[in-house]
Each structure stands twice: as C-alpha cells, then as structure tokens.
Automatic annotation (TrEMBL):
It comes from the Eukaryota. This is RGS domain-containing protein. Keywords: Membrane, Transmembrane, Transmembrane helix. The chain crosses the membrane at residues 45-65, 85-108, 120-138, 158-181, 201-222, 234-267, 294-316.
Length: 736
C-alpha cells in the first residue's frame, strides 16, 4: 500500500480526473491500434499486388524464353500467336505460380535465419518451374508433334540444349541447397540430443558430395578431350564411377543419418509423453505440440527429398536421352508431370520443414530479429570490442599477486550442488529454499563452515589449489540463494530462464534429477566465480552484523563470527599508490575481471537477475556490468521468466549510479570515486541495459523469441534429459 492518501473532499475530483485520463488513454490506444492495423493492411496489400505482378511477369518471361530462336543474337520471334490448346501447360504454370506464392509468403514471415534460407530455396524452386516451362515449350516446338504448344518454327535444337543444361544445373543446386536447409534445421536438434558428432558426419558427407559434383564433370571433360589416350579413358571411367556410384552413395548415407535422427526424436518424445502422463496437464500439451511439430517437419523433409530425388533421376535421364536423340513427346510429358508434383511438394515440404506453417493466418511485418542469431545460442551474445586492460596501471606486485590469487577461486558446479544439498541437512538446519537469501546462506552456512580454517569456501573445497573460472556470476545478495544456484544450473543447461530449474531445486528428487542431467550434458565440472564463495568472509564481514539481520525462519539474529582472522577493508593498510588496501579482497573485482578476460578470451559474465530486478540497483553489480562491457566480455542474462522482466523493466529507465546501494557504504564511495563523469556513465549504463539494438534486455528478448521459434528443440532437450535420468518425472510435474 502507498503511504500517500487523499482526503474525502478530493475524491470526486480525483474520480473525474481518473475517468478523463482513462478516456484519453483509451482514445490514444485505439488510435495507435488503428494506425498499426492500417500499416499492416497496407503492407499486406502491397505485398499481394507485388506478388501478383512478379508471378505474371515471370510467367510471360518464361513463355517468351521458350519461343526464342537461338541464333547469333538469340533473337526472340514473338510474332507467333500462342495456342493454349494443351491443358498440361496451364497445369505446369499454375504449379509454378503456387511455388511463387509459397516463396513470397515465407519471405514475408522470415523472422529467423532458417526461414530466410527456406524462402531462398523456394525462390529457386520457383525459378526451376519457369525454366521447365521454357524448356518444355522449346522442346515441343522443335519436334513439332501433335502435342506442340506453339505452331511455328520459334524454337531450335540449341535453345533446347541450353535450357536443358540450365534445368539440370538448377536441379543439382536444388538438391544440394535442400540438403543444406535440412542440416541447418537439424542444427538446433544436435545440442538437444547432445550428439554433435551426427552433425559433423552429415557435413562431411555433404562436402564429399559437393566435391564429387564439382570434380566429376571436370574429370569427365578432361578425359573426353583425351579419349584416344589410355589416361583419358581412365579419367572418363573414374568420372562416370563418381557420378553414378559415389555421389548416390554419399547421398544415401546422408539420408540414413537424417532419418535416424528423426526416428530418435520421435522415440524420445514418445517416451517422455508416457512419463508426462503422470505429470501436469501443461507438460502433456507441450510434448504433444512438439511431437506434432516433429512429425510435420519430418513429413516435409521426406516429401521434399523424395520428390526431388525422383525428379533428379527422371530429368537427368531425359536430358541425356535428348542428347543422344531418343527423347519423344510422351517422355517430355512425363517429365512435365513429375515437375508439377515436384514444385508443389517442395513448396509444401519446405513450409512444413521450416515451421513456417505456424504463421498461417498471422499478419506480421518483417521481424527485427538479427539475421545473424543462431537457433541454439539463446540468450548468449558477445560485444565486438576486444578485451583491454584497465585505463590505469596498478602499481605493485603485491596487488597483482592478490588479484591473481582471488581470480583462481572458482567453484565447480558439482561443488555448488554438493553444498546446496547439505543445506537443511548437515548445515543451516533452518534452511528453506523459498525464504533464505544469499546473505542468509553466507551468514548461517558459509561463514560457520570456514570459521576453523579462516579461508574462503572455494579455498577450502579446492584445498588451496587454483581453479580458474570460465564465467563470473554477477548477482545480488538479497536474491534467493536457490535462484542464484538455479541461474548457474540453467546456464549449464543452456537455458535463458531459471524458473523450471528453480522449481526442481526445491526438493531432493529434483536436485538428484538435475545433477544427473548436468552430468549427461558434460557441464558438471564447469567452474564459476561467485563472490560469496570466492571472497574470504573472515578477512572482512564475519565479525559484525551492522544491519541486525535475522534468520527469516527462526527470527534469530545472524551470529557474529568469533574468529581472530585479521580484517581488511577498503582503506586498511598497507595501501597502493591510489590509497586502496592491498590485502582487501573486496576492492579488486574490476582488476580481477580484466586479468581473467586477458588470460582467457572466452571468459564471460553471467548476470543472475532476481525476480524483483533489484540487481540493477546494486552498485557493485552495475560496476561489474559496465566493466565487462568495456572489456568486450560476453555477457548473458538469466531471468526468472519473461513475465517478470516485462512487468518490471520500466523501473530501469531512471537508473542513476548516484542512487545505487551496497551492503557497505564505503563501497559506493569507492565506485563513485572511479567515475569522473557520472552523467555520461549513467547514459552508458542505461544504453547497456535498455538499448533497443544491443542492450542486455533486448538481447534477452530476442533470445526468448528465437527459443519460442525453436520450441521443438527446447522441449526435446528436456524430454531427452528426463528420459535418460533415474527419475525425470519432476521435470514434467514442474513444467512451466
């Protein structure tokens, strides 16, 4: 409740003002929606008219090209009147128009790189239909049989030969690009299946196929020019073997790997669906939707590959037959029928394969998603600037030595889970996952465990050996400790929200399942740097409780440690030339980040955002964000869920470093002293978080949109993990 209240005398005035404001807001909202609808309607109208124009123009071009007389100048004789006596020509042109409509429609909804590639393939499919139309018209004119479309001498043998060669070339491009399209679609599935080797072998066979397609014809040409020599004959035989045997073998093996992948996907979904019958209704719906999507995409893959392969054989044999003078009218008619089927099935198949069918009936402007975003890198991006050293040089080998020692206090995910499992059982018996914060855990668990040794928890667990982290976790101590760990686990599982992981961390069964899943992912040994575990609390805060914090369950004051470890704060001697304490471990985070970023270019920052977004009001957290961005480190956000972010992001628009807080007031003074131009820093900070092109929140929203597009892969990953562990049922019981 707000502390402000209005008197009764102002109630009517406030009500009228509120009504007027509501009416004004509603009018503005209706105006905005009207403008948006008008904009979408105009876009759809222009797209429709443009599509009709392109289809008509391209069809006329194909008709004219088919009547070209290939002489010295390839002049077209267009004085002959076309006779549309053969309905087969109309059917072929109608199928070509269908391919054109499919290409334009997918392009208009190409919000991801894969959809953009699918639209390009459909454009190629459209061009193939036009080329086939021209080829068949030219060939029918040349033979001038009873099935002739045009009566006259508009075509000749050279025209047919050129168009036939073009058609074969386009067909080869079609089947290769279709394979590339399928592989790109499967790229999001390999991580979900945790089988990157399948993708490697698919690439190898595809590259082998491309090499044979390139070298085979060249070898055949070279051998044919020297056919009278023994070496020439050998080259001809090698080329024929490559074209007739090796290329089909590579293609068949490639198809077997693809179909094996699809079968495994369906098997995993079936197994997970049986398990989810005992789970929540929502999990069953998600699995059924994903299984249906897998079936539709598999169907699209099968029909596209099948019709393209069949048409390749028919077209090649027909063109070869023409070259040796054995093509007759009925054979061309057979090619025409197969081409019609190929055009339509390719259009339908690629729309199903790419997932573009989900946009049916949806009016949308071209998306502003970045075209270089991959399907599997959800929520992870890298600034293009390179890591650099801080602007100032810190004098003193003791400072550098302490910074490097602090940097080596990483903690593996296995150790983090082991510590979390002990909470409420061996230590901190009052622990409740949905109540206790990181501050509570530090005071009631970490400090008591390490009191006898007087070290940090990371030093205790690692037995004094350095453990260099691959990521630094930026977090605030007022966040639930469960959510902090959930962010780290979600990062290891390549998630960009931690709500599901947080739910699984709430009981022992879920913790066991998560640990097995992380082991299957191969990330249980990943090392993270977390200040609560890395900093030696006994050389700093353990000796006092200045804010009188209490255990929220027992309501007892946090105990004060009785250890005699010397305490070092920001200005405790000995000092460096900048007046900073050398032994203090709480004033070296920026130098430590710089050291790790220069030592390991892949070192990244993980930002564990709490549900209330309080992290963005903490001084040290914002300083770490700004420093990581300045050094060019990869940064990624992990939030509880999308609704939390969208409902609270407006609170970040007025961020000011002067208003930020820290557990120790001297930390705020230290951070502010390092910022000469605070207004410029505030602007840069807001840009870092809120910029509509490269801001952290924008990148997270784009990652969320991509994950929604790749929902099949997301559900498949959890389906595989849940069926591979001893008890994966909690995944579907807590599915969100």
């Amino acid at each position: 409740m707000s502390s402000d209240s209005s008197g009764d005398s102002d109630g009517g005035s406030d009500t009228l003002s509120s009504c007027a404001l509501t009416s004004s807001s509603s009018t503005d909202l209706r105006s905005a929606w009207t403008f948006k609808l008008n904009q979408v309607s105009l876009y759809r109208c222009l797209t429709f008219l443009g599509a009709i124009f392109l289809i008509i123009l391209s069809s006329l071009g194909a008709l004219l090209l088919g009547t070209c007389k290939a002489g010295a100048s390839f002049a077209c004789e267009i004085d002959a009147t076309p006779q549309y006596a053969d309905m087969n020509l109309c059917i072929l042109m109608a199928c070509t128009a269908v391919a054109a409509c499919g290409a334009i429609w997918v392009w208009c909804h190409a919000s991801t790189p894969h959809l953009l590639q699918a639209s390009r393939f459909l454009v190629l499919n459209w061009i193939e239909g036009l080329a086939s139309t021209s080829l068949i018209i030219a060939a029918r004119e040349y033979y001038d049989d009873e099935l002739t479309y045009y009566y006259g001498d508009g075509g000749d043998a050279l025209t047919v030969s050129v168009l036939g060669s073009l058609r074969v070339f386009l067909l080869v491009c079609e089947i290769v690009i279709l394979q590339v399209l399928i592989q790109n679609r499967l790229q999001s599935i390999w991580p979900a299946l945790n089988q990157p080797r399948f993708g490697v072998w698919l690439n190898r066979f595809l590259w082998a196929e491309l090499a044979l397609l390139t070298l085979g014809p060249l070898t055949l040409i070279i051998g044919a020019t020297h056919r009278r020599s023994e070496l020439g004959l050998i080259l001809v035989y090698i080329a024929i073997a490559a074209l007739v045997l090796l290329i089909p073998c590579c293609f068949v093996i490639w198809m077997i790997l693809v179909f094996a992948t699809l079968c495994r996907v369906l098997y995993i979904f079936n197994a997970a669906q049986q398990m989810a019958q005992e789970g929540s209704l929502e999990s069953g719906k998600a699995l059924r939707r994903s299984r249906r999507a897998a079936l539709l995409q598999g169907l699209g893959l099968v029909i596209s590959l099948a019709t393209t392969s069949i048409f390749t054989g028919v077209a090649v044999s027909t063109v070869v037959g023409y070259e040796v003078g054995q093509v007759e009218g009925f054979e061309l008619q057979g090619v025409q029928y197969v081409q019609c089927v190929n055009l339509v099935t390719n259009t339908i198949g690629v729309i199903l394969l790419s997932g573009a069918y989900r946009f049916w009936g949806v009016s949308s402007l071209p998306s502003d998603l970045p075209k270089d975003s991959g399907p599997t890198g959800f929520g992870r991006f890298r600034f293009k600037s390179r890591p650099v050293r801080p602007k100032r040089e810190v004098v003193g080998t003791e400072w550098e030595a302490k910074t490097q020692e602090l940097a080596g206090r990483g903690l593996s995910l296995q150790h983090l889970l082991s510590f979390y499992r002990s909470l409420g059982n061996e230590i901190m018996l009052s622990y409740r996952p949905d109540v206790h914060t990181t501050n509570d855990v530090v005071r009631l668990a970490i400090i008591p465990i390490t009191a006898r040794h007087g070290t940090s928890y990371a030093q205790l667990v690692n037995r004094g050996e350095p453990a260099m982290p691959r990521k630094m976790v930026t977090h605030n101590w007022s966040n639930l400790f469960r959510d902090l760990l959930a962010s780290v686990v979600a990062d290891a599982l390549e998630e960009h929200t931690f709500e599901l992981v947080s739910a699984l961390l709430s009981d022992e069964v879920g913790i066991n399942a998560l640990e097995q899943m992380i082991r299957l992912q191969g990330t249980l040994g990943d090392i993270y740097w977390i200040c609560a575990f890395a900093v030696n609390q006994h050389s700093g805060i353990c000796g006092a409780n200045p804010r009188a914090d209490v255990d929220p369950v027992t309501m007892l004051l946090h105990p004060v440690c009785s250890c005699r470890t010397p305490k070092f704060f920001n200005t405790t001697p000995p000092l460096n030339p900048y007046g900073e304490s050398i032994p203090c471990e709480m004033n070296k985070f920026d130098d430590m980040m710089s050291f790790l970023a220069c030592k390991d270019p892949s070192f990244a920052e993980l930002v564990a955002v709490d549900a209330s977004l309080e992290l963005f009001s903490r001084a040290w957290c914002m300083a770490e964000l700004a420093e990581a961005q300045r050094m060019g480190m990869a940064q990624s956000l992990l939030v509880r869920n999308k609704a939390t972010l969208l409902s609270r992001q407006h609170t970040l628009e007025g961020l000011r470093v002067q208003d930020m807080k820290a557990s120790r007031p001297e930390d705020v003074d230290t951070i502010l002293a390092k910022i000469p131009n605070k207004d410029a820093f505030n602007q840069r900070l807001r840009s870092l978080i809120l910029d509509r092109r490269v801001g952290l929140l924008t990148a997270w929203k784009q990652a969320d949109s991509l994950q929604q597009t790749e929902q099949l892969s997301h559900v498949l990953k959890w389906a595989r993990l849940s069926t591979a562990v001893t008890d994966g049922l909690p995944v579907w019981q807590n599915w969100v």
